[in-house]
Amino acid sequence: MPILECNNLTKTYAGVTALDHIDLAIDPGRIVGLLGPNGSGKTTLIKLAAGLLQPTQGQILIDGKKPSPETNAVLSYLPERIALSQWMKVTQVLDFFCDFYKDFDRAAAEAMLAQLQIAPNQVLKQMSKGTKEKVQLILAMSRKAKLYLLDEPIGGVDPATRDYILHTILSNYNPEAAVIISTHLIGDVEQILDEVVFLSRGQIALHDSCEAIREQQGKSVDQLFREVFKCWEN
Amino acid sequence: MLGKLMKYELRATGRMMLPLFLLTLLLGVFTRMSTAVVQHTHTNITESLNMLLIFAFVLALVGTAVFSVVLMVVRFRNNLMTDEGYLMFTLPVSVHQLLWAKLLVSMLWFVAVFCVDALAILLAIYEDGMLAGLPEFIRSAFENMDRYYAVNGLLYMLEFLGVLLVSMVTACLLFYAPISIGNSFATHKTLLSVVFYFVIQTVLQIVTVFGFAFSARTVNDVIMPSLASSPTRAAHLLFLSVLGYSLIIGTILYVLTWFMLRKRLNLQ
Amino acid sequence: MSWEFQDHLPIYAQLMDTLKRRIVTGRYLPGEKLPSVRELAAEAGINPNTVQRAFSELERDGLIYTQRATGKYVTENEADIKSAREALARTQVADFLRAMQSLGFSVGDVIVLLQSFKESEEEIKHADSGM
Prior knowledge:
A: three-stranded antiparallel β-sheet; C: 5 helices
């Protein structure tokens, strides 16, 4: 059964159609890239999956169920923003995650924090934005979830951290879980993806496996993306 | 899960409330000490300092109460309607649980403010033997109520408490509802929240006025006679109607808030 | 640090190539246990399903075999490894000749060029040993 399923999923606000009758199915064990320019509906799709928005039409299912507290328990969501309470210390945030998520692996989180030399007693407010993002990522990847939704996980970080993030995603690979990465830094992420979904103006322009794209088109996904979404005409 | 939410709610708000409580209590103690000093040495300096201290103390008493209300509103907005909302609304908890965690903890702080202020005042005016005389004081208060007003003091207290608690919840919701409505819009969220606050207040005023006008007949035919015959019954009726009114308003506001957060959430 | 891959070829094919080279050059010895899918994916910075596909293809080619519950191992069949090495060499030569052809060199021209390379190499060696 697909981990994520969209059936005729539509979302409109204030007359704008952010998502236009999307049909999508993501199977477990897949690492999927959600690619598209700003305004393509990427963030809307992720928010719908996370239960932060309600569909206008159609449905979205996580592991066969509509978004609810039950699906939240098996969904690990990494938002684009820093959503953690800034007054908390790292240990307190770990306590929080342990309290609410049964599948949270505290030891794994602590190991990764140590690897990145993030002091457990530091207050979040005193950290740089990059460090806070790392903390949030570590928390998301320390969950043994069925679906990981990562919204722009490598956007604002330096290349070394980028490598670390991608490495972490791969090391946590679970054939029963799916990972959806929304990004526009395709070149960096392409190698770890199974499939890509190109979103354009609320519709799916392309949904294919990366290897198929390379075999059939003879180009990388990055190059194909640039062609499909070219901003100017020659 | 509700318990856990409340735990974090208490921690997040306690870090601000507890220092305030400490300050208020300390000022109470200092006031008491300063009063004693003034009684011994009547100089201009000590008298002015004493005045200053009393002023600060009263400020603390009132300030703590005001702050608890402000904190309750700000906490709701910051924790649910800003970036933190991305975490809170993706937790494996229902919107009901999120709301009740905040409502119950807010209530707790309101009650705490009352207790701390009362304690601080007691400390400020403490005379020897006051503490020993306290049980006697309470007992005689209840006796008086029983004797003069033919009323069961305990029942009164409970009804009063019930009305108080429901009113507190409703008071919180009076802020939560417009904030959640304001959030559902794409822009000018704060402005719209303020606007809706006044809209709701106005609607409530109108409803209340109509309600009174409507029930004028019932008041005349039912309540007035019973007031004459049995003041106790009238008092109970009064309490119950205030309670009922609060409950209805509270329920409407709760449903409105829940709906906005569950179906019209629009985090930016 | 993840491995570099070229844009226009499927990654599984490029991985297969790298693994074949490691096997024929003896970096992975006959009978040696290969890293697990997950380990290799993390090390190379690529998708585990891609690694799995590369492994499956290599197994089909007979260069590796699976031992259930323990993992994948390099074949012990030296002949298979030798022929894989030869196949890789031939591909390398074919690519080289194609590149030379685009410069306008026929196969005969290339042989002459190689001969002169060989002679100058021997001259240098001779000169070195004479010193």
